[in-house]
Amino acid sequence: MRILLAEDEKKVADIIVRGLKAERFAVDICPDGQAAWETAEAYDYDLIILDLMLPKLSGTEVLEKIRRKNQHVPILILTARDAMADKVKNFEAGADDYLTKPFAFAELLVRIKALLRRGPVNRSSVLRVADLEIDRLSQNVRRGGKKIDLTAKEYSLLEYLATHPGRVFSRTMIIEHVWDQSFQGLTNIVDVYVRHLREKVDDASPVKLLRTVRGVGYSLNDEVQA
Amino acid sequence: MNTRSISFRLVAWYAGWLAAIFVLLCALLYLDLRHFLESDLRESQLRRAHQIGDALLAHVKQSGEAYVASQAKDWYEPEVNDRFIRITRADGTLVYAPGMPHDGSFDPAQVSISSSSKTESFTKYVLPGKKTLLVASLNFKSAGNPDYFVEFGQLLDPVDSMLNHLLLQLMLGLPLAVIIITCGGYLLVRRALTPVEQITRAAERITQHNLSERLPIAQTGDEMERLSVSLNRMIARLDDAFQNSKRFVADASHELRTPLTILRGELESMAEDLRVDAEWRERAASMLEEAVHLSKIVEQLFTLSRLDAGEARAEWSRFDLSELAKTTADQLSLLAEDKGISISCDAGQPMPVEGDRVRLKQVIVNLLDNAIKYTPKNGGIKLRVHGVNGHVVLEVEDNGIGIPADALLHVFERFYRVDQMRADGSESAGLGLSIVKSICAAHGAEVEATSVPAHGSCFRVTLPLSKG
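ok -> structure tokens follow
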């Protein structure tokens, strides 16, 4: 997997590169917008990480130029601004995800992996993870054939985790999807809901599906653990 | 009445001085008039005594004393005119003395016989009944005639009553004049101080949110104009200082993001790096926690500085606050239940408001989160939304530990914490309620807190109801 990182802050770039290399990604760094655009045009990347405040050519301009030629490469925006208007503008210009500095590297990694493995969204009306069955039409949840009663929020959380079994979702990602940004900073709300969900989904079964990934977030496990 | 106020003191001085001058003038007028009237009376009595002497006593040899007496009585009719006439010989024996006046005002017999050696003299006799008789005495000498002592007198009553009348008039008129002067003076002072009043009212309206406004300049070319101009200059300097501090917060929170990213990234990789000694990993993790906390503060400061700068109203829409309150309370209810706290939501009527839905939701989230934090197990939180004449009132009431009265004034200040005991963990930076206040200010809403320590607190947000 090859990633292009356009970031002018050398130390920030170093940390990201080091982290990504440890995860066996190949990373190229561009310190300015012009170089980023030229490199992105010349080579084929699986993912592009763009800082918005770049010299020579701003991140938004690079984003627009890339999107005119290549509709498909996932682009993740890094920014020191988190104004709502900026976010909307960049999503409209074709960004796939948006991360505000300062961020946890684990969060960046989870998002990169989510973008790379995004693939086709599972639109089937029934999601299955091991013996867990989620019927999206009736919002009925069964575990081993037994019906589980969930509140609306618990259901949304479980359904979100079940869209990509095995994938780690960060607390921030969960809040963004299941709640909204008014709840940002209240990350313990996710923990509380996951705990309640566990009581209902996992407690009665020897196989635990909801897994905590320390320092990162949660995932719904599809492989049976030893 | 405020006795230290400038208007009171000005009017008091002014009325005091004028009253003193008036009293002095009136006293002078009274004394002078009394002196004039008395001396006038003396002159006329003496003139009459001389008349009796020159016209009658000078010819006493020819006409005889009896004629003199009858003439004096005929001319002056003392009994009718309340006059006193007495003619005595040098040895003190009577030539003529009048009878009782017809109105019995005084008894001439009670007037003692004086024996002044002077040619002309005046005596005041105080008679029973507080009457004063002014008597002019004349030692009449003429060649070839015996010496006579002529006394001519009149009661001072008319003069006294006139003076008394004047005194009464002055006593009544003086306070009236002083009252009129005081009122007039008060009105004048008020008029003179009106520009100050206007400047004060305009200054009252200026808060940190409208520092760009200026006071009206009193175009008077005097101290008032200078005062308003200097006040405006002061407001401009304050405005500058405020802008600078806001810009500083915005710039600082922005500039801190990159170093924080680096710090977090390095600490994160150190905390995860299995080649690093376990103890050092632990330390890196602890530092990472602080760096994350710092990031949160920077985040909140950035939010505040954006709210201060007046966020664009592009996100504004019209929505039902009751519905927003209900869904938000519902979303947070599990968080509360986790602590054994119940949230009851009383929001029956739809309450349309205009504003940034996400931001106003943040207000409800922050207030509820705060209430959950400071309410002990088995407590209860009440969220109420109701309309009060053209406004929507949103209340979050808890029965938690409450806020001491001296802290209540400061809860909306940045970084203010009621005390160390309340700060649970590293989550709160003391900015949540400042954000609530800033969002409210941006929506033209008021937020206030009331609390009874050990019984609970109530936060009340008052928003204008949408008219559309």
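Chain B touches chain A at residues 254, 257-258, 260-266, 268-269, 271-272, 291-292, 295-296, 298-300, 302, 306, 312, 314-315, 328, 331-332, 334-335, 338, 358, 361-362, 364-365, 369, 427 (CB under 8 Å).
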